[in-house]
């Protein structure tokens, strides 16, 4: 991840002081991490994992640890709200001294949480575990070379496509270049099929990931942030999707709208870029349509990215400021995040490289007996360097709103990136951080 200048860190500390008040002073009897008189350390962990039927439940994973580690006991709590709501609660709890030791934090949220002074530097403990994780995700839990937790799962962008439907259209392989793809998309559209979707409600995450595969948007120079969301990669992404939109060779159903699921179920949408973590959700969206015919492929050089991919989602588990036992918290965290089969059962693509994740049988059946977890691992290792800025959630909201205008023709895809530039600069300045002209 980026290296922060000491003066920038001082600026961040000033912002933290303003937002945190006297939160760091003293201690509370309700502090999350506790040590009992018999030497047992209790560590609390808040997460947003699905914990759905058929999965290995977090409480069951934790029970294995607790049985084997009587001196370090874990209490896990599931937060049922949205990610932003959980971050807001954690901010309040850190101020009151009642925050958990460990909390799930999205990679895009981590810089903002850091800026607000909510995290604890655990570099001295993280160093011994770094080789357990892919380098890209591990870098996303660092700020100025210091680690604030460990990566849990990742969301590299890949391509889902119905191989059988492609064959019917005479498309023998996934196109490798932008021009080849656009030609194939036109051919498919003429037959009432679509090999790509344009998802306005995912623009902030997906388009930034695609553009960022060929170069990041944010860096620090001197004591200021340098912002450039209108890179060559962004221009390539905008041109690609604009050509598809103009040719009416792409669906425009929002990802989380029922119309998206319907486009798969009725057999019209036969290919799309998606995050790796969407595999089980995609199976549900399809309603079984095309089961056994779908495949996963790496992205082609469609976005000026030389075959690289970018991030869309994924989470770390961070050690919060109040924790009195960061060493024990990190010991458990590394163990938990390397329970690969259990995390896969939760629908995650683990960041750990301690063992190969096996593709669940149900997934393999849907994706034509393909080892899609291997494809996701390859994508992880082929991820470009993209870092996030504090307040990135505001950029996502603006990108989504602007992307919707391109869907109905009242705007252009390029506007998504120009608006991202303006919002990025305004957001950083509102946080009291310097931005280079």
Written account of the structure:
It is built from 18 helices and 12 strands. It is globular, with a radius of gyration of 22 Å. The protein has 2 domains: 6-155 and 313-358, D-Maltodextrin-Binding Protein, domain 2 (3-Layer(aba) Sandwich), CATH 3.40.190; 156-310 and 386-430, D-Maltodextrin-Binding Protein, domain 2 (3-Layer(aba) Sandwich). It is of the alpha+beta class.
Shape: globular
* CATH H-tier superfamily of the largest domain: Periplasmic binding protein-like II
Oligomer: single chain
| H/E series | HEEHEHEHHHEEEHHHEEHHEHEEHHHHHH
User: Beta-strand level of the residues, as a percent range?
Assistant: 5-15%
Helix content: 40-55%
Describe the SSE topology:
Layout: H1 6-20, E1 34-35, E2 41-47, H2 58-68, E3 72-78, H3 83-96, E4 102-106, H4 110-115, H5 123-126, H6 135-139, E5 142-143, E6 146-147, E7 149-162, H7 163-168, H8 178-190, H9 203-212, E8 218-221, E9 224-227, H10 232-246, H11 258-265, E10 271-275, H12 279-286, E11 294-297, E12 311-319, H13 326-337, H14 340-345, H15 361-366, H16 372-381, H17 392-407, H18 413-430
Parallel strand pairs: 2-3, 2-4
Antiparallel strand pairs: 1-2, 4-12, 5-6, 7-10, 7-11, 7-12, 8-9
